[in-house]
Specification:
7 helices, 4 strands
């Protein structure tokens, strides 16, 4: 009896280890999923053959985009939209004139593509407490959101989140790095 019990325990451990090893295997993500960015052609929205441009046909129709040229134009503009942050002065959430010019470009994009949703991330430099920077990051994100709403963009398509000092764009500990970290970043959902 003791011998068979020992074998049961041994077999159980082997089964658990095999299952655990299978769960840890690397999983592949198909290139057609939105947000997947394995290489530059996929990050630009193009599948391996250049067709499809990253979204399924139903989603393109929901966005009001039909032809391949329109799809490429949207993806190029979406990439530019996300890659252009706005920056803030130290301890401030007031939009500067250069920030307002960038925001005007974002307004134009969102008017052209009104079904796109945006999350505005507020970020801070490393100085100050975590709590203070989370609150300041929220005020920065809300300042950008309010500019969009005041420009006629539907608030139902906008959301904010603050990361405070937790996600720096520049890792340095000097004014040049801090200036890059005092920002609002824009993430599209489509």
């Amino acid at each position: 009896m003791r011998k068979s019990w020992g074998r049961c325990v041994y077999l159980s451990l082997v089964v658990v280890l095999v299952l655990a090893a299978g769960a840890c295997q690397k999983k592949t993500v198909p290139a057609s999923q939105p947000g997947y960015m394995a290489d530059s052609s996929v990050s630009a929205g193009m599948g391996p053959s250049g067709a499809g441009l990253g979204l399924d046909d139903a989603r393109w129709r929901e966005l009001g985009i039909a032809g391949e040229a329109e799809k490429r134009e949207f993806l190029e503009k979406a990439q530019a939209f996300e890659n252009q942050d706005i920056y803030f002065d130290f301890d401030s959430y007031v939009l500067s004139e250069p920030a307002k010019r960038i925001m005007d470009g974002k307004v134009a994009f969102l008017r052209k593509y009104p079904r796109v949703k945006v999350t505005i991330e507020g970020h801070c430099d490393e100085r100050g407490t975590t709590e203070y920077n989370l609150a300041l990051g929220e005020r920065r994100a809300h300042s950008a959101l309010q500019y969009l709403v005041n420009s006629g963009i539907s608030q139902s398509n906008l959301s904010t989140i603050s990361y405070g000092k937790e996600r720096p764009a520049a890792p340095g500990h000097d004014e040049a790095s801090w200036a890059k970290n005092r920002r609002a970043h824009f993430v599209l959902q489509y």
